[in-house]
Amino acid sequence: MRGLLQLFAAYGAGMLFVLLEAVSLTLIIQYNQRQGEIATNSWGLLTAYVDRSSDWLADYWGLKNEVIKLQSKNIKLMEQLDNARYSSLNRPDSLGRDSSERLFAFTSANVISNSVLSTNNFLRLDRGSNYGIEPHMGVISSDGIVGIVRAATEHFSQVMSVLHSQSRINVSIRSTNYFGTLTWDGRDPLFMQLEAIPRHAKFVVGDTVQTNGYSQIFPSDIPVGIIRSVEEVAGNNFFNIQVELFNDLANVRYVYVVKNRMKKEHDELDRAAND
Questions:
Q1: Which of 38, 83, 103, 143 is deepest in the core (most CB within 10 A)?
Q2: What digits encode the pLDDT tens for the residues 223-246?
Q3: DSSP symbol at 196
């Protein structure tokens, strides 16, 4: 009781003021038609705003859960597809056992920061070494390639975007299998340049460019873009080719980090060759 009396002594004036204000407003609204209409409309707007906000929150969390489910399904499908490609290259051994195994594994991640305006652009993901992410792993999205992991901490990873002056992506022209290197000139984020395609190569504007798997970073046959223009330069044995990317790096949000399970063996062969 003593505590209650102390509460009223300390805040009684303010509480009485609020009470009297509430009574006054109630009387004004109840006995004045115009003020009553204003109060009714205001209350309706407030409840509508609250309803929209609650619906948005429900939709947001529901959409987030759906995205997570779709990412999991996509990972399973991509792993099955790449395993099927790799298995087709292997035959059972003398005992009838299938010597193939899954070549690539995928980890879903969200982009938490991104840039496309610089000459050297980077992305940051909300997945790091806790999820097995390491430098030199490829990053893709449902629309194409995104970049290559440069560094990883426990919870985050830094990705060098394909829109980077040092980016070099091994690709092929789907219709002819001629291969070259995809680079970026620092201009339009929707276009990259395909280099090292010889002038005797046969292809047409509109052909699809895709990864060829030579780098062991990206799985093969991932669509990258479409050839939009071809230029012949006097004295040059290679075409100047502009490729429009399927992936708009300015709005990429959900990605997959690619782990090559056989990369260690490839690295050992590279070291042996260099020795």
A1: 103
A2: 999 999 999 988 899 999 999 999
A3: -
Output DSSP code: residue 198: B
| CA dist 252 → 30, 103, 145, 179, 222 (Å) | 54, 26, 10, 26, 16
Packing angle of the helix pair 33-88, 2-31 (nearest 10 deg): 110
CB 161 within 8 A of CB 249: yes
Nearest CA to 130 out of 160, 152, 103 is that of 152
Q: 3-state DSSP call for residue 8?
A: helix
| Model confidence at 79: pLDDT above 80 | no
Alpha helices in 2-159 (DSSP H): 2-31, 33-88
- For 50, other C-beta atoms within 10 Å of its C-beta total 10
- Domain annotation for the chain: domains and CATH numbers: 104-274 (2.40.10.340)
43-72: per-residue pLDDT in tens?
555 555 555 555 555 455 555 565 665 666
For the entire predicted model, the pTM comes to: 0.70
C-beta of residue 174 within 8 angstroms of C-beta of residue 151: no
Which pair of tokens denotes residue 15? Answer: 């509480």
What lies within 8 Å, CB to CB, of 257 at 6+ separation is: 106, 107, 108, 109, 125, 127, 131, 133, 137, 138, 139, 149, 157
Which comes out higher in pLDDT, residue 184 or 35? 184
Q: How many residues does the chain have?
A: 275
